[in-house]
Amino acid sequence: MAGDPDSVSISGTTKQEEMENHDQTNVLQKHVKFFDRNNDGIIYPSETFQGFRAIGCGLILSSFAAVFINVGLSRKTRPGKPFSFRFPIEVKNIHMGKHGSDSGVYDKEGRYVPLKFEEIFIKHARTHPNALTSDELNNFLKSNREPKDYGGWLAGFTEWKILYYLCKDQNGLLRKEMIRAAYDGSLFEKMEKEKASKKQNITCDV
């Protein structure tokens, strides 16, 4: 019905979702807040490491992520402040760390853009309308590349490949709901709970 706030728009999202998205000041902050383990607004490498371990990543990947992410984002999110060897990331300024050659799903203020999210699948999901294969993900990443933006290429490649590695299903598909949850940060909380639940079940079985 035309007057139904939950009716689906051309973008594939409901009108209610779009209204909520416009009201959200910074979804990108929600994306990274999971890694602010003590909720003080600052993410240190140790917290990034802890966050990746909490969602089931191994020691090597978690260590790499802590170095790669914090070294890459610390100075960008701390404008006017002196360099720190502790490499803190300020959550409130995370939008300043946006790299080039990205999908555009976050705008320059860190807000979620539904149309850009839907474009990922309209343009690149050929095998399944609501998922990406490994090859389709590679094509998507290539299509985002801006000329000579090597740092952006690397950042995008690393982020998406880690997401694919962690969240692909048994058929090698990275599903739409997983990607959406990664954008709003709810995926990480879900993964942490699932890992904790599995650990508890193993303990109970011993």
UniProtKB/TrEMBL annotation:
Task: Provide the transmembrane region boundaries.
Answer: 52-73
Q: Where is this region: Disordered?
A: 1-24
Q: Which GO terms describe its molecular function?
A: calcium ion binding; monooxygenase activity; peroxidase activity; plant seed peroxygenase activity
Which keywords, in A-to-Z order, does the entry hold? Answer: Membrane, Oxidoreductase, Peroxidase, Transmembrane, Transmembrane helix
The keyword tRNA processing is annotated on this UniProt entry: no
Read off the SUPFAM superfamilies from this record.
Answer: EF-hand
**InterPro entries linked:** Caleosin-related, EF-hand-dom_pair
Q: What class of enzyme is it?
A: oxidoreductase
According to its UniProt record, the EC number is: 1.11.2.3
**Similarity remark:** Belongs to the caleosin family.
Name assigned to this protein? Plant seed peroxygenase
What species was this sequence derived from? Handroanthus impetiginosus
